[in-house]
Amino acid sequence: MKNFQFHRPKSVADAVKVLKGNPAAKALAGGQSLLPMMKLDLTQPGDLVSLGGLAELRAVRVDGKTLLVGALASHDEVSRSTAIAGLAALAAGIGDAQVRNRGTIGGSIAHADPAADYPAALVALGATVATDRRRIPADSFFTGLFASALEPDELVTAVHFPVPERCGYAKFGHRASKFAVVGVMVAKTAGGVRVAVTGAGPSVFRVPEMEAALGKRFDPAALDGITVPAGGLQSDSEASAEFRAHLVGVMARRAVASA
Ligand code: FAD
């Protein structure tokens, strides 16, 4: 690990001052992804900007018909919120107790791991990501493998989730880490049904055929006969692309059943 300057800003504005236009600077939230990468020298920030003192980013509260989750809210804190049961269940299934206590929603979505759970929730629920400078709809936030619409010096401040009529999440987790081999969130709102899949591809994606079927009848049986093609899905020692394609159907049915 290379030497670095450690910063402890007391406000978002002070954190942005260090990050802005500084390619050597990185935000540190829970450290569950960044610190292992630094130990492996996969990233070598010259300035590490701890977000730990930014109490303003910790809120988890309902604002009208929206659940606001501050970027620094831990997975454990999200799992204890009751406004969106499917989101709470998703957060409760991330990693282990240590990861849930330290890891944050802002760090997870900024990292954009293709096997992370939150991308499915953001896309299925039609969430909006708030940053220090703009608002980004979830549909355009995740842009590829470990890639997002964030600028290198941009700070996530919160995620706004519209509260759905119903939603459910089901995942087939990695045996050791619990990362999603395949995770599916299904959400029903006044605007229709959205189905978002994480873990299966290089980035989260929606399944329009499932959404149309569930829009007519919100029942696991409505998904009978609907498959996703294996082409383009991930294939590794945990699961082949064909198995992942099969799991998308199984997890989608379970997600509807749990909604
Ligand atoms: P950090 O590690 O601090 O930062 C990660 C990246 O995000 C860095 O590039 C950092 O600069 C950037 N960043 C952090 N906060 C912000 C912000 N507010 N704005 C902009 N950029 C920011 N995840 C799952 O989804 N499901 C799992 O089952 C799962 N299992 C895990 C098991 C283990 C053993 C471990 C170690 C991790 C696991 N994770 C899992 C990942 C975990 O959820 C991490 O918490 C998450 O990926 C990163 O969050 P963090 O707060 O620790 O971010």
Describe the structure.
By secondary structure, the chain is α+β, with helices and mostly antiparallel strands. 29% of the residues lie in helices and 25% in strands. The protein has helices at 12-19, 34-39, 75-79, 85-92, 97-102, 105-111, 118-124, 208-216, 241-258; strands at residues 5-7, 25-28, 47-50, 60-63, 66-70, 128-131, 135-137, 142-144, 147-148, 156-162, 166-173, 180-189, 192-198, 205-206. The strands form four sheets. It has a five-stranded antiparallel beta sheet with strand order 4-5-10-6-7, covered by helices on one side. A four-stranded antiparallel beta sheet has the order 11-12-13-14, with helices on both faces. β8 and β9 (147-148) form a beta hairpin. 43% of the residues are buried. The mean pLDDT is 96. Bound molecules: flavin-adenine dinucleotide.
SSE arrangement:
Elements (H helix, E strand, L loop, with lengths): L4 E3 L4 H8 L5 E4 L5 H6 L7 E4 L9 E4 L2 E5 L4 H5 L5 H8 L4 H6 L2 H7 L6 H7 L3 E4 L3 E3 L4 E3 L2 E2 L7 E7 L3 E8 L6 E10 L2 E7 L6 E2 L1 H9 L24 H18 L1
Parallel strand pairs: 1-3, 2-3
Antiparallel strand pairs: 4-5, 5-10, 6-7, 6-10, 8-9, 11-12, 12-13, 13-14
The protein binds flavin-adenine dinucleotide (FAD).
Give keywords.
259 residues; alpha+beta; five-stranded antiparallel sheet; four-stranded antiparallel sheet; 25% strand; globular; binds flavin-adenine dinucleotide
